[in-house]
From TrEMBL:
Keywords, ordered alphabetically: Cobalamin biosynthesis, Isomerase
PANTHER family, alphabetized: COBALT-PRECORRIN-8 METHYLMUTASE (PTHR43588:SF1)
Pathway stated in the Swiss-Prot or TrEMBL entry: Cofactor biosynthesis; adenosylcobalamin biosynthesis
Upper classification of the organism: Bacteria, Pseudomonadati, Deferribacterota, Deferribacteres, Deferribacterales
Name the record gives this protein: Precorrin-8X methylmutase
Species, as recorded: Candidatus Mucispirillum faecigallinarum
């Protein structure tokens, strides 16, 4: 039987269904809220198995949001999906540099992807950084390179690019660092997942 719900009740009912079908997990309360938000966005319960949280990642992300930080995404789609009203409550900012003219020119001159050059640009921001990567494995590869070079130390890395080429390997590069990260193991992910993870932390930092 179809359920006819008011718009405000649809999300509530969706999360009730997710909770019922998810069953028991080993995640803490904050991690579980992130997982449920990802499942709500993707309708994919496999994230129960492949979404991992390292070094108190959710707690660290919430702390960074409460203090004020800059979130950098690798796609404008992810940027568009982040809740801006919640973001502003803590004086936070969010950017995507992928379409910037200087990034495009730099990528052309170097013969690399725009995602790599966008990360290089972001690394110059003198504020606490959260990276939300849902599309480009080369963005994670550049983040790994800059961390190894001592040029980058983000508060949190959300590593969930989707696809087939260098996707799994790029995520493995991030996991090996002693840096808080939320990683979607394997091939799954996407800009919508990256945004959902950010929003789940925003809603915990600044309850609606």
């Amino acid at each position: 039987m179809l359920e006819f719900l008011k718009p405000m009740d649809i999300e509530k009912r969706s999360f009730e269904i997710i909770t019922e079908e998810l069953g028991e997990t080993n995640f803490n309360e904050k991690e579980l809220l992130v997982l449920k938000r990802v499942i709500h966005t993707s309708a994919d319960f496999e994230y129960k198995k492949n979404l991992v949280f390292n070094y108190n990642a959710v707690e660290k992300g919430i702390e960074a949001l409460k203090k004020g930080c800059v979130i950098v995404t690798d796609t404008n789609m992810a940027l568009a999906g982040i809740n801006k009203a919640g973001l502003k409550k803590g004086g936070n900012e969010a950017y995507c540099f992928i379409a910037d003219d200087d990034v495009a020119l730099d990528a052309k001159e170097k013969g690399v992807t725009r995602a790599q050059c966008a990360i290089e640009k972001a690394a110059k921001i003198n504020k606490p950084l959260i990276f939300a990567i849902g599309n480009a494995p080369t963005a994670l590869i550049k983040i790994d390179e800059l961390i190894n070079a001592g040029k980058l130390n983000p508060e949190l890395i959300i590593a969930c690019p989707v696809g087939f080429v260098n996707v799994v390997e790029s995520k493995e590069l991030i996991i090996k660092h002693n840096i808080p990260n939320i990683t979607a193991l394997g091939r799954k992910g996407g800009s919508n997942v990256a945004a959902a993870i950010v929003n789940a932390m925003i809603y915990q930092a600044f309850p609606r």
